[in-house]
Design brief:
By secondary structure, this protein is α+β, with helices and mostly antiparallel strands. The protein has a six-stranded antiparallel β-sheet, with helices on both faces. It is globular. The chain has helices at residues 24-33, 37-48, 77-80, 92-99, 111-119, 156-182; strands at 54-61, 64-72, 84-86, 103-105, 128-135, 138-146.
């Protein structure tokens, strides 16, 4: 799906509604109990509530990140389902993919980032973060979150690193369970 052209500038986003962020221990418990990829996705999106006003969870297939789940006001899930980002092109998703760890950006730096924010209906100067989730040395998911122009928590990168490890362990456990069933 083609991303829309971003506006040159726009008024600042309204302050996101306050939602208390779920504690890491609760999210860790959900991830450790996850019985499917869908349950892992639900736990990741629950983690994002209160931390981001808009979240996209991508699956990674080769050089492309395809939108899988969305969260946030005004996001058309059906439209987002056709969203695909080329990870060979400069973007925040590419930076996180290549770094293998969460990356934070104070504003859209590349045309893909600006167009992705426009697709989400976000301000061009929105603060965003992207996080890869790795299984057996291969990135399988990318999480993209934004709070618009409002500041992110000081602890967000540390929290994202912890959640990435927990999600990776949950996937490893699912693979091990599937292997045990097959043998």
């Amino acid at each position: 799906m083609a991303l829309p052209e971003p506006p040159e500038d726009a008024p600042q986003d309204p302050e996101p509604p306050y939602h208390p962020a779920p504690g890491l221990m609760h999210v860790e418990e959900l991830l450790m109990r996850a019985s499917s990829r869908e349950r892992i996705a639900e736990a990741l999106l629950w983690f994002c509530e209160g931390r981001f006003s808009t979240t996209l969870l991508f699956t990674v297939h080769g050089h492309y990140a395809d939108a899988w789940h969305t969260q946030g006001e005004g996001i058309d899930a059906r439209k987002a389902a056709s969203l695909s980002v080329d990870l060979r092109e400069p973007s925040l998703l590419q930076a996180a993919h290549d770094a293998g760890k969460p990356v934070l950006s104070g504003r859209a730096q590349t045309p893909i980032d600006r167009r992705l924010l426009a697709f989400l209906g976000m301000h061009p100067r929105s603060k965003t973060t992207a996080m890869p989730i790795t299984v057996k040395g291969r990135i399988v998911n990318m999480l993209y979150g934004s709070r618009g122009t409002w500041p992110m928590r000081d602890t967000i990168l540390g929290e994202l690193e912890r959640i990435a490890i927990l999600a990776s362990r949950a996937y490893d456990r699912l693979l091990l369970q599937a292997k045990n069933i097959d043998s």
